Amino acid sequence: MSPTDRLPSLLSHLPAFRATVERATPRDRVVAYAGSLAIVLAAIVARFAVDPYLPPGFPYLTFFPAVVLTGFFFGIYPALMNTAISALVAWYWFILPAESFALTSQSITALCFYFVVIGIDLGLLQLLLAAYAAQVRAHEELTRHLRMQQLVSTEVDHRLKNLLSTISGLVALSQRHAATPQQLGAQIRQRIQAMGSSVSLLRGSSHGGSADMRAVMQAATAPLGVTEGERLVLSGPDLELNDASIVPLSLILHELATNALKYGALSGDAGRIHISWRPMEAAGGERDAPPPKMIELVWREQDGPPVVSPSSQGFGSDLIRRMAGSFGGDANLTFAPDGLVVRIEMDARNVLATAASPGF
Asked: Which among 353, 354, 334 has a CA at the least distance from the CA of 344?
């Protein structure tokens, strides 16, 4: 640590400087005024001790340094107290006529000179204290901004790695279900566009950012022209999702909405989709331990064309099950005659921004 770095640290131990950046406690005030009285008493004793050796005209010889030291160590108000005490002592004993508070031209001149010099000294000291307080506040503000910058940098790095990992998984998964390079490119573009819509929900949030469940639903389906209304019904409590779950859930919803537009309920004029979510208890659990809280998400299609169960698992089914697994849960797809029903269970600890969400 350099001398310029050590100086503010040393000054912070002095009551006068510490009081400029934090509120003084009653104990601090008692110590400050007791220390100030000790300084002025020492100055009085010293003035009487040196009086026989001084020529006339030096009534404040020991009082000037006493007041300045008081201000430097204990602050302006204790210094003003010592200013008054020193003026009275010097006026009574060391300004002619001695042992008298008589106002003569000599005493008035001496007192005015004293107060002018003390006023200049304390004014300069006040500027020093103000400069110290400004420096401390600037240092604290700089430290706060540096910490925030580090936090944002860490968060951006964390999210970028998650996004790249998700994109890598999408490419690998799409390769298995694409018949041509053109089909592969189209699938990847669609999924990345869906991710872009979900990432917009994270913009501007710091570490631990969150988004409402309903907002995630709307952001995932809106790019496809599917908005909340008669054909899309959203129902469920207000739940804040953590930033790690927003992108995977958006991909699930985008995939379901895409399939609904191509083959499902939204491919006709009468079809409807109902998305609901609710908190629930997980089945099972260790003995004597409460089962973990879960979130159940249900995607239900109605009044669409006849549903045909696929002979093999396609890209959408694979994606939904993989993403549900990242939530610590599972996905069940039912190809009912009246419409596809998808039930997804998610571990609340992996999904919610806080365990204090409604229902938990």
From this structure: 334
Structure-block tokens of residue 10? 């040393």
237 and 346 share one domain: yes
Amino acid at 347: D
Integer Cα distance of 296 and 286 in angstroms = 21
pLDDT reading at 263 higher than 90: no
Q: Are residues 319 and 188 part of one domain?
A: yes
304 in the same domain as 243: yes
| CA pair distance 120, 24, nearest whole angstrom | 25
With respect to residue 169, please indicate whether it lies within any of the assigned structural domains.
Answer: no
Peptide bond into 52 cis (omega under 30): no
Does pTM top 0.70 for this prediction? no
Nearest alpha carbon to residue 157 among 149, 146, 167, 168: 149
How far apart CA 178 and CA 242 sit, in angstroms, is 32
Residue 160 lies in a domain: no
Q: Of 325, 320, 323, nearest to 299 (Cα)?
A: 320
Token look-up 């001790």 returns: 49
Q: 197-256, pLDDT tens digit by residue?
A: 555 555 434 444 567 888 888 887 776 667 788 788 999 998 888 877 887 888 788 788
SS3 314: coil
Could you tell me the CATH number of the domain that includes residue 294? 3.30.565.10
Q: Are 137 and 129 in contact (CB under 8 A)?
A: no
Kindly write down the DSSP assignment for every residue of 336-357, as one continuous string: ETTEEEEEEEEEHHHHBS-TTS
With respect to residue 152, please indicate whether it lies within any of the assigned structural domains: no
State the total domains in the chain: 2
Residue among 7, 252, 230, 240 at smallest CA distance from 136: 7
